[in-house]
C-alpha cells in the first residue's frame, strides 16, 4: 500500500512557516512505509519550484540516499578542435611520423566526421588487427569519408 502525504508550507501573520496539515506522521524519511517493497520502481514526480525555505531545525529530516540514477546526454561538436585526436599535434604541423608539414602529411576525415593525420589513422587501424577498425574517438566503424 502506497502512502501519499501532501503538506503545504504556508506562513502565518508573523511570517513564520507552519504546516497546513498538522497531523502528518511523525517519522523520519528513511523509515519504511507499510507494505513497502524494496524492488519496486521509483519514479519521482518533478518537484514544484518555489523560493528557498528555511525550516526550523526540529522539522529537518535526515535523508540517506540508497540509489541514485543519473542520465546524461552529449554529442560531438564538429570543428571544435584543430588537433589530431591520436597524436595531439595541430593539423598545421606534421604528425610524429613526418619530418615536414604539408602534402606529405594530409588531413583525412572519417564518415563520422572526425579528422586525423593520414599517418596517424592508418597506424591506428593497422594496430587494431580487426576486419572492422573503429574510430579512436567515437568507436564507430572507421571508414574514410567520400
UniProtKB/TrEMBL annotation:
What cellular component GO annotations does this protein have?
Answer: anaphase-promoting complex
Keyword Cell cycle in annotation: yes
Question: Which segments constitute the RING-type domain?
Answer: 95-139
List keywords of the entry alphabetically: Cell cycle, Cell division, Metal-binding, Mitosis, Ubl conjugation pathway, Zinc, Zinc-finger
Does this entry carry the keyword Translocase?
Answer: no
What GO biological process term is on the record, naming one? Answer: anaphase-promoting complex-dependent catabolic process
Which Gene3D superfamilies does this entry report, sorted A to Z? Zinc/RING finger domain, C3HC4 (zinc finger)
Which InterPro entries is this protein grouped with? RING-box_E3_Ubiquitin_Ligase, RING-H2_APC11, Znf_RING, Znf_RING/FYVE/PHD
Pfam families reported for this sequence: zf-ANAPC11
Quote the protein name from its UniProt record.
Answer: Anaphase-promoting complex subunit 11
Q: Which organism is it from?
A: Haemonchus contortus
Amino acid at each position: 500500500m502506497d502512502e501519499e502525504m501532501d503538506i503545504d508550507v504556508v506562513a502565518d501573520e508573523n511570517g513564520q512557516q507552519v504546516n497546513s496539515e498538522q497531523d502528518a506522521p511523525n517519522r523520519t524519511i528513511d523509515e519504511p512505509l507499510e507494505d513497502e517493497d524494496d524492488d519496486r520502481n521509483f519514479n519521482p514526480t518533478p518537484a514544484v519550484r518555489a523560493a528557498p525555505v528555511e525550516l526550523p531545525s526540529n522539522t529537518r529530516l535526515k535523508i540517506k540516499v540508497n540509489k541514485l540514477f543519473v542520465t546524461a546526454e552529449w554529442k560531438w561538436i564538429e570543428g571544435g578542435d584543430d588537433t589530431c585526436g591520436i597524436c595531439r599535434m595541430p593539423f598545421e604541423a606534421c604528425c610524429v611520423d613526418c619530418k615536414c608539414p604539408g602534402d606529405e602529411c594530409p588531413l583525412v576525415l572519417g564518415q563520422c566526421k572526425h579528422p586525423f593525420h593520414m599517418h596517424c589513422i592508418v597506424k591506428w587501424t593497422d594496430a587494431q588487427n580487426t576486419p572492422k577498425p573503429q574510430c579512436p574517438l567515437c568507436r564507430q566503424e572507421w571508414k574514410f569519408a567520400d
